[in-house]
Amino acid sequence: MTGDDRPLRNSEVRPLWRGRALAVLGIVLVAFSLRSAVASLSPVVDHVARDFPMPSAVVGLIGTAPPVCFALFGLLTPLMERRLGLERVAVIALGAVTVGLVARGLAVDSSTLLIATALVFAGVGMANILMPPLVKKYFPDRLGLMMTLYTTVMAFSTFLPPLVAVPAADAAGWRVSLAMWAVFALAGTIPWIVMLLRSRTEAAAAAAPPAESGDPVAAGSDRLSFEDATALSTGPIVTAPSSSRVFSRLARIPLAWTLAGVFGTSASMAYTAFAWLPTILVEHAGTTPQQAGLLLSLFAFTGLPASLIVPVLIVRFRATTALYVIGALGAVVGLLGLLLVPAPSIVWLWVLLYGLAGLLFPLALVLISIRAREPETAVALSGFVQSTGYVLAAVFPFLLGVLHTTTGGWQVPLIVLTALLVASIPAGVYAGRHITVEAAWERRHGRIW
């Protein structure tokens, strides 16, 4: 499926690996680093606290840092991409993650740990924005497959750190446990660096005088590159609007705001669950802390099958609206079950249903790719959607904590969480319209994007 949601012709589809093996590897390593970098700290906080004090305020800031950094760099990354290009910013993002992870392992107190963690999340925030446009740029003919691969790797890398981090900390110390994930981020820079060097070489060859054979393809090459072929097939070059103009236009398009609402709801459900679900289960449902931890893993596990099926169902069968309604209403039933029937014997069912909110995350990522015609617009749309959505994700868990403190229970926070899901359904339905933001602008304002 292309950016304007029309089916690709057979002639436009090519084997996944032909000329794109490095891009596949680079996207997989970026996806793995996004979640492993975030999920590797919390399991070993107790180990860290044995070496130096970890004040509650610092722990709270570390918990709030991801959505705040993601929102901030959601705004900055499109500006960087405009000047440097997708691949260079990907190298910068993974470099920041690598340095931050190593620095986190070398932290000497809670302040240096917080600074290193902020650097990690800054790099992750940049990479978050880049992933949908990178997939769109290199795999316009394989969006469903690559988004499935990308989101599945992210889901897998959410489970792996909690399983490995504590045994690694017990065996080799918490510093090794935190720093070892830098290997994957560093490895992730290699494919993009190689591709940058290759493109520079190709650009230099293209600038050389053409062969006298009359062949439009440079001497020594028997076919056009994928990028050149794409450029030739898409017609005349049109000057793209500046980043500030793109953001201004996106803010005037209802489709962009509905996508931000979809993403924000997804992120809010995830960060609220990881921040508060174990506490809710212990205090409201009467589970033990051990059971609450297992139930949180059950909640997270639902994201794995969702990442496998959602991209394909959206790209091939345009099932956006149905998937959103299933995910949102399923989570609503789970939250109402927790609210009204919080019995330990059945709470697993409510958590499993609440976990259907995991359908919304891969859905939102796929929509960012297919609701833009061009990779450049996809970068701006990704920045707009994710920065706006992560603001909601940063505020909502804090709001629920305030409501819990004010009311002395979890009934009101659960009602508010349920209301957010219900209120988001119209946005999910609207986002299911088969139109790009460029086309929406052109229809709305009567002029070319």
Tell me the span between the first and last alpha carbons. 21 Å
Describe the biggest sheet? Answer: none
Number of strands: 0
Overall pLDDT metric: 85
Rounded to an integer in angstroms, the radius of gyration calculated over CA atoms is 23 Å
Order of helices and strands: HHHHHHHHHHHHHHHHHHH
Number of helices, where a helix is a run of at least 4 consecutive DSSP H or I residues: 19
As a percent range, the share of strand residues is under 5%
Helix percent reads over 70%
The low-pLDDT segments are 1-11, 212-240
Task: Please give a handful of descriptors for the protein shown.
mainly alpha; 0% strand; 449 residues; 19 helices; 2 domains; single chain; Growth Hormone, Chain: A; disordered N terminus
Describe the structure concisely.
The chain is mostly helical. It has helices at 21-39, 45-49, 56-84, 86-105, 110-138, 143-172, 174-179, 182-207, 226-233, 243-250, 254-283, 289-301, 303-317, 320-340, 347-354, 360-370, 375-407, 411-431, 437-445.
Description of the structure:
This protein is mainly α and 449 residues long. The protein has two domains: 1-204 and 223-237, Up-down Bundle (Growth Hormone, Chain: A), CATH 1.20.1250.20; 241-449, Growth Hormone, Chain: A. It has helices spanning 21-39, 45-49, 56-84, 86-105, 110-138, 143-172, 174-179, 182-207, 226-233, 243-250, 254-283, 289-301, 303-317, 320-340, 347-354, 360-370, 375-407, 411-431, 437-445.
